[in-house]
Automatic annotation (TrEMBL):
This is EH domain-containing protein 1. Residues 76-143 form the EH domain. InterPro entries: DUF5600 (IPR040990), Dynamin_N (IPR045063), EF-hand-dom_pair (IPR011992), EF_hand_dom (IPR002048), EH_dom (IPR000261), EHD_N (IPR031692), G_DYNAMIN_dom (IPR030381), P-loop_NTPase (IPR027417). It is found in: Cell membrane; Endosome membrane.
Length: 578
């Protein structure tokens, strides 16, 4: 399967119309008595009270929201009469992203898998790569025709051009973030893992962040678009290492506004994402759009936003991954004096949002400048996302490549302070054929295998996106908790009456020691504490006396969320046949 090819995308228009009717029926609460479905009830949640038609639906399961959740699947897929292990495998492959629901495209993929299973084929991850999927007949679903005929529901037509992929935004969840109401979000409104994270953030984590000004010190408050954003891949490297060419190579076409040359050409941060037509959007415009996850960039000011833009185009790969092209890192004083914004801060902000960070090197540019070292240092805490690419490797022969690889590993060892060896991909990621005269047949084979490995890594990004969101959410919750302890400790150390200015200065000067006190008092890991210098810099603008004391109830709410709510959420939206 190509990167960007979605499961179930190989489907004829005739079959698509059939699946549209099936999908709408499964998602809109069809009238069917439980007797039709002798199969198991879902372990996801207890049955709700029956509706007037006696359909036995489960709360929040079928509501026309464009999502087939576990309860819907058990009822609808039961008509296929496949065994439970087969249906478990069907769901696992169709919901490869582990979102906890099936959109229209995933539903089509599931139906194709059911059809293959009914024909006696073994269901595997490779089943959706078959060439005959477009001619595959829909599966036999016992009793479905009668239900479609009897159903008085208005069947919502799903336009595959619009709804062919899961929707980026759910209007209901957007209201959760904009509403001033203090009412709790009902559990029935949660129909996916991401919705569950939004609910937990608004009810438990956001109050802690606001109380202790986490958004000023660490990261802006999250919005609905931050949760719904597509996975992002950021490319970092010195100028002319092939960052823009790499994106062009993956897309097999140039993106709007791209410029490639041997000189420093990309002078701005460019987000390459899916859009209805080819166009570029200025940074100030994109940063204020509620449906875009870039509102946090406004903290870097107009100087940065004028060097930031969004490039949109229709492309199957961009339906699943967003790329971030960055300016080439220059060296020395030129870099430090000519940037009118915090370059390192911006890369750090993007690093927290991205799912993968590619560091590109050129065989002729292995030196890591001071600025590049600071940029790599700003990726602290995101080591698991970093991949190193030695690009343009076919410009040197095999013996030189061996020496260059050794030199690169030595340079990285001094910058990446981790005991593990970084994964380095070697290749020539452009549209030109490999220069076989320089590298020989063995080198050509090596480059092809390395490229396949990197493409496989990129292919897995959409599948791991939901897991990554959970991972980043948990990291943020722990960071917010430690931040609350630090702020509460500084407030506690302030005198009640006299000498407040001196006490504040003393606490700021000895901030490292104060961190140690907090660490010992609450038994916290040292590696989770923020950078002292950055924290000091932000603290200088605050009056410690106005900070809040530690509120045990708020801390306990976050602890409960980490220890109980998130595991329960994952349990509720696991494979319904487990």
């Amino acid at each position: 399967m190509e990167i960007g090819q979605y499961p179930g995308s190989g489907c004829s228009k005739e079959h698509q119309k059939i699946y549209q009717e099936w999908f709408a029926l499964a998602d809109s609460g069809p009238i069917h008595p439980p007797a039709l479905f002798p199969l198991l009830r879902s372990p996801i949640s207890p049955p709700s009270q029956c509706c007037s038609s006696g359909c036995g639906l489960i709360d929040g399961a079928a509501d026309g929201d464009g999502r087939i959740t576990g309860p819907d699947a058990i009822k609808f897929f039961g008509m296929s009469k496949l065994s439970r292990p087969d249906l478990k495998q069907v769901w696992a492959i169709a919901d490869s992203r582990r979102q906890g629901y099936l959109g229209f495209s995933e539903f089509v993929a599931a139906m194709q898998l059911v059809s293959l299973a009914q024909a006696g084929n073994e269901i595997t991850q490779d089943s959706l790569k078959r060439d005959d999927l477009s001619s595959l007949n829909p599966p036999v679903m016992e009793g479905l025709d009668a239900l479609l005929a009897k159903s008085k529901h208005v069947v919502k037509r799903v336009d595959p051009e619009i709804d062919g992929f899961p929707q980026e935004q759910s209007p209901i969840t957007n209201k959760w973030f904009s509403s001033k109401s203090s009412k709790k979000i009902p559990l029935t409104a949660v129909t996916s893992v991401i919705d569950g994270l939004k609910k937990l953030y608004i009810e438990k984590l956001k109050p802690l962040e606001v109380t202790y000004k986490f958004n000023d010190f660490v990261s802006p408050l999250l919005t609905s678009s931050d949760f719904d954003a597509k996975p992002m891949v950021m490319l970092l490297g010195q100028y002319s290492t092939g960052k823009t060419t790499f994106i062009k190579h993956l897309l097999k076409t140039s993106y709007p506004g791209a410029h490639i040359g041997p000189e420093p050409t990309t002078d701005r941060f460019v987000v390459v994402m899916s859009g209805p037509d080819e166009r570029t959007i200025p940074g100030n415009t994109i940063a204020v759009q509620a449906d875009m996850p870039f509102s946090g960039l406004t903290t870097f000011g107009t100087a940065f936003l004028s060097k930031f833009e969004c490039s949109q185009m229709r492309h199957p790969l961009l339906e699943h991954i967003t790329f971030v092209d960055t300016p080439g890192v220059l060296s020395g004083e030129k870099q430090r004096t000519q940037r009118s914004y915090d370059f390192t801060g911006v890369t750090s902000w993007f690093a927290a949002k991205c799912d993968l960070i590619l560091l590109l090197f050129d065989p002729h540019k292995l030196d890591i400048s001071d600025e590049f070292k600071r940029v790599i240092g700003s990726l602290r805490g995101h080591d698991d996302k970093i991949r190193v690419v030695l690009n343009k490797a076919d410009q040197i022969d095999t013996q030189q490549l061996m020496r260059v690889y050794g030199a690169l590993m030595w340079s990285l060892g001094k910058v990446l302070n981790t005991p593990e060896v970084s994964r380095v991909y070697i290749g020539s990621f452009n549209d030109k054929p490999v220069n076989e005269s320089a590298v020989g047949p063995l080198g050509k084979e090596l480059f092809e295998r390395e490229q396949d490995d990197l493409l496989s890594d990129l292919k897995d990004i959409p599948k791991k996106a939901c897991d990554r969101r959970i991972n980043e959410f948990v990291k943020r919750a722990r960071a917010a908790k430690i931040h609350a302890y630090i702020i509460g400790h500084l407030k506690k150390e302030m005198p009640t009456m006299m000498g407040k200015a001196k006490a504040q200065q003393r606490l700021t000067d000895n901030l490292q020691d104060e961190f140690l006190k907090v660490q010992r008092e609450y038994h916290l890991p040292a590696g989770d504490f923020p950078y002292v210098e950055h924290f000091k810099e932000v603290l200088s603008g605050y009056n410690f006396d106005k900070f809040e004391k530690v509120k045990p109830k708020m801390i306990q709410a976050v602890d409960d969320m980490l220890g109980y709510d998130i595991p329960e959420l994952l349990k509720n939206f696991r494979n319904p046949y487990e």
